Amino acid sequence: MKKLKFAILFLILAVALGATAISGYAWYWSEHPVEMDHDRVDYIVESGSRPRSIARSMREAGIDIHEDGFVLLSRLTGSDTLLQAGAYEAVKGDTPRTLLERMASGDMTQTRLTLVEGWTYQRIRQTLREHPQVKQTLGDISDEDLLKRLRSGQSSPEGLFHPDTYVFVPGSSDFDILRRAYEAQESMLGKMWEERDPELPLKSPYEALILASIVEKETGHSEDRQRVAGVFINRLRVGMPLQTDPTVIYGMGEAYQGRIRKRDLTTDTPWNTYTRPGLPPTPIASPGRAALLATLHPEGHKFFYFVSRGDGTSEFSTNLAAHNRAVAKYILKRP
Question: Does residue 212 carry a pLDDT above 90?
Fold first, then answer.
């Protein structure tokens, strides 16, 4: 009987010592830096991933993490239900515990993509396609289908995306970034339209967006922006054609090869503001906040014409005779 009691006591002691040893090793392992193929290793945690599949993804990426140890550690710390999908970066010196806490808190890798004022929708799509960390999901989606996904009531995606720098997690989709840019432009335009100057000859926020896209393309000097907007507002008020070259260029599409000829000005397209009165049917680019602000709060003046001085600024005129003199001076280089 005494021998049995001694055996049981010995077994209990062995189990306790074993558990202590295992706990000690587990603590040491969780706090000891993992081996990595490189100083920095990027990896993706897919949506719905469990700890074991995450550990497997980490190993495939070049992080020598012990799968069973990672699973056990995540359960013991209660992190197994907190791990968030996204893109992460492991840095040399990271421990299993550090990696686990990073994923549980959602401390993801982030990168940037900039959409520039004055870019067309096609240029925006090209930039998204060429970014190595943007997940491609749209393919050759039609404009109509894209607008349906965005729940937009417009017929063209041109001008609907706010130019800005977007911070995103690598692996975010092209649609996710477009949706953010669309919502930002829609929100900003709505707020600015409510605060617009009274009695503008613009019937809707969309018309303001169209004119702002023209202002964006016509101004190389920020201090002229409100004055340029005022010229177009003056023309719209009296029914005078806008006669702005960027709309002609947009209507030419791929036929534009760097310069406009006289026949291009007289060749009718929906966007040719020399042959058609009023605003074109859609924006011609993505206007930024400054262009929208200038359009909805234009400078009040009596100018109807302007021409580039060649240094980014413009010469403004109240009548055609003065404008022709400015053209002779700055464009034709005549005294």
Answer: yes
